[in-house]
Each structure stands twice: as C-alpha cells, then as structure tokens.
Amino acid sequence: MPNHHSFILAGVMGWPIGHSRSPKIHNHWFAQYGLKGAYVPLKVEPAKLETALRALPALGFSGCNLTIPHKEAALTVLDRIEENAARIGAVNCVVAEPDGSLTGKNYDGYGFVASLHEAAPKWQAASGPCIVIGAGGAARAIVSGLIDAGAKEIRLFNRTRARAEKIASDFGAPVAAYRWEERHEALAGAGLLVNATSQGMVGQEPLDLSLDALPTTALVADIVYAPLETPLLAAARRMGATPVDGLGMLLHQARPAFRDWTGTMPDVTPALRALIVADL
Hints:
six-stranded mixed beta sheet, six-stranded parallel beta sheet
C-alpha cells in the first residue's frame, strides 16, 4: 500500500481477457466512499501466475481478484489459504498482507447467501431442503456457503453423477448426491432451488427441469446474470416462487474483498446494481 489512504487493486484475468464487471463495481465504491484508489484488469497467462501474484506487494497493490483458470492454480502459489477457500478448492480473492505475504480467500459462497437474504430477508437455510443443480466450481462454493448458513439438507444433482458424489464426499453431511432422473420429484418440500450450471445463459439451452413439485414458498436462484431473467427464473416468477438472479452473488461477493483491501465494508445499492445492469 503506498499509504494508508491510497489503494491499488487488480483483477487477474485469464488469457484472453474476459469482460469482467469487477472494475466497475470496485471503482464505483472508491467514488462512493471517497477513497483514493483504482481497480485495474490485468491479463496474466497461466504460466506467469505466480510471478504476477508475487509482484503485487512490491508494486503497491492491496490485493486482487482471480478469474478462471487462475482460481485453482493459486492454491499452490499463495502463502496461506483460508479454510473456506481450501474447502471449495478455489481462490477468488487475494490479499497482500503488510509483511508482503499473500492470503487466498473465497467469497463466492458468502456472496450467494447474501444475495438470497437480499431477495428474502426472512429466508433461513435450515427451513427446508436446498436443491443444487450442477457440480462445478460454482456449485462447490454455493454448497460451502449453504453449509455455513446452517443448511440441514442439500440435494445435489448433476448429469454426471460421479462429480456430484465427489462434492458430497468432500463436504460430507448435509450433502447427498442423487440420480439426475430424480431431479423433478426431489423439488417436493424444498426451501431453495439453485441452478449452478450455465444452462439458461445467453446461447445455452435452458435448464431441463419441471417445477411442478416445487413449493411456491421456495426461493429459486440462478448463478447466470446474462440474461438477468433466465427461463428458470421466469418460470419461478409465474408460479409465485421468489426468483433470485445471479447478479446479486457477483455484487455481494465483492463486498468482503473490498473490506479486506481498504478497511471499508461497502453496500450493494440500487445505484450500483443499475450501473452493472446497464453494462449487461
């Protein structure tokens, strides 16, 4: 850190660079809270990840975010990995400590649960079974977040059941992997349904799932935010369930990272959401 009131942050992106919204989010907060700082996207080839991360403290960076394919690779590069990131098996936030060492964290699960509470403040993870569709990195983060929030039962579905069974084995109770064919009936009594796959995204097939057995009291969440209202969320809205779009997870996971870097815990305001929606 150049001084106590100036911060440089980075988004360390895969190669070629993706269209990240993180610079807009964090630079909005710098302006909102009157902090001196900047968040810049940096393209880093996988072979140069360790060199790039080690350079952060020397260059005065307070930390960075990581995108795919760097999230898993960083686990073997950093000086310490917080338990949550180790459990998920991925790092999305790196903090450059005052002594020049690097700490890896993962706030995706936190961001997901916070987005649910924003949409339904009275929702409780323990109030009914949580259904998670998918078994990739996002699903691991969501399962971790739901366990931390007190979920008593998480039913996991993936076309390739072995991948769901791996997550169930890694996390243990309350996670159980089910056969893909059981997904429609398994929605009975659920308090939460999460699509943690890319199905429903622009250019992708919609998620193949009937909501007939889902209680209207359930929350239905999608990690996709392009489009903001996926076919799944539209179906949830029509039946009277509470839809939760994927943008909330993106915005809320950024909050504790910004706090770690600057000492200020920012809010997700309507103005910030509108700024990012306009960019979609």
